[in-house]
Amino acid sequence: MLNFVSAVNSATSFVLSSILTLLIFSGMQMYKPILIKSPITIIFGGYLGSLMFMFIVTAVGNLEATLFGKNFQLKLPEIILSMAISLIAAGMVHRICFTTCLIFSLITIYYMNKLSQKTYVAAVPAAAPVKSRRHK
Questions:
Q1: CA 104, 106, 110, 115 torsion-angle sign
Q2: pLDDT tens across 56-98, in order?
Q3: Where are the transmembrane segments (predicted)?
Q4: Which of 8, 38, 39, 54 is deepest in the core (most CB within 10 A)?
Q5: CA count, 13 A, side-chain hemisphere, 106
Q6: Computed from CA positions of residues 65, 8, 60, 16, in that sequence, does the dihedral angle turn out positive or negative?
């Protein structure tokens, strides 16, 4: 069996993430009347906002990796800006979408950080005990 799944480079990932961000935003605006019909769809609107947050963070991170090199990392201002954009988009649908988007986005960034630490941080070997030459 062949496995065709492979990672794309940062520039391609930036373009894909940007397109998905725009699709989610436009879908939330087009289907706003459906998203505000019941409490479960309002919560789903917040979840869509958190997906948009994830794609914005991915797009910004890949843009910075393309411009500044692979070792460049996202900092807190980029995360806050991405969060603000997604919260505004969710708030345009419904007030509760804003709140659920915030909750889902915090969970999302926690797991994205955990996955990033697991993937990119090299384990530091423990220091071997040093034997002293002094005899007692």
A1: positive
A2: 999 999 999 999 988 888 899 999 999 999 999 999 999 999 9
A3: 6-28, 40-60, 80-111
A4: 54
A5: 5
A6: positive
